[in-house]
Amino acid sequence: MGKGNSLFQVVKCRLSYDVQDGLFVAAVSSKVNGETIFDTAESDDAFNVLSGAMHKALYRFYPDLREIPLDTYGESIRDAKSVEDMIDFLVEYFRQMISEELSVMTN
Question: Which CATH architecture has domain 3-106?
Fold first, then answer.
């Protein structure tokens, strides 16, 4: 997989659905600033569960990202046709947020 750059990269991602509980479960292995992080999340929505697991990893390094609501992705996510598309979108979105955060910190 290896989606992303040195600031944020998704290494592995597993998405499953628990029929009994009606929840999606995401397990995401990512690298943030070169450090490997593993996080999980649960949600009744596939996109939200992927986003949630990735957010957990990023919050450790960029706590100010907690201030950005999860629903700020806009209409562009509706173009995602697969889990791979969702991951690509999220990685790019988070990379932009990290870059903006770093530029604010250095100014």
Answer: 2-Layer Sandwich (3.30)
